[in-house]
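Duplicate of #3305? Posting structure anyway:
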């Protein structure tokens, strides 16, 4: 079940006959994804486009003085990530936690 804060968007993925895939559009609404998919130009010889639902999640990155970074938490809603970073215990003299959108990778 998704929380009400989860952001659901859609991506367009180009599928090739050789099994390769790549994202060609991001951040679409369901209506935009359906409209794109219904266009006859979304397939050709040896390829086709399809859409996928993407739930935007956030991760916490700890940044230390000198630029060293490491992910310390993943799969958070925006509300959870903001609450984490608003906590005064998530920063020190030479480090601080920040949130960012998790990177979506095709599998």
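Output from current build:
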């Amino acid at each position: 079940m998704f929380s009400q804060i989860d952001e659901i968007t859609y991506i367009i993925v180009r599928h090739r006959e050789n099994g390769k895939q790549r994202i060609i559009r991001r951040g679409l609404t369901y209506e935009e994804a359906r409209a794109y998919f219904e266009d006859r130009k979304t397939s050709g010889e040896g390829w086709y486009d399809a859409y996928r639902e993407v739930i935007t999640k956030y991760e916490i990155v700890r940044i230390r003085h000198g630029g060293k970074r490491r992910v310390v938490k993943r799969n958070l809603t925006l509300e959870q990530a903001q609450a984490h970073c608003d906590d005064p215990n998530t920063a020190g003299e030479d480090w601080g936690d920040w949130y960012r959108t998790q990177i979506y990778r095709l599998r």
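Confirmed duplicate; merging threads. Strands lie at 7-16, 21-28, 43-44, 47-56, 58-64, 69-76, 95-101. The radius of gyration is 18 Å.
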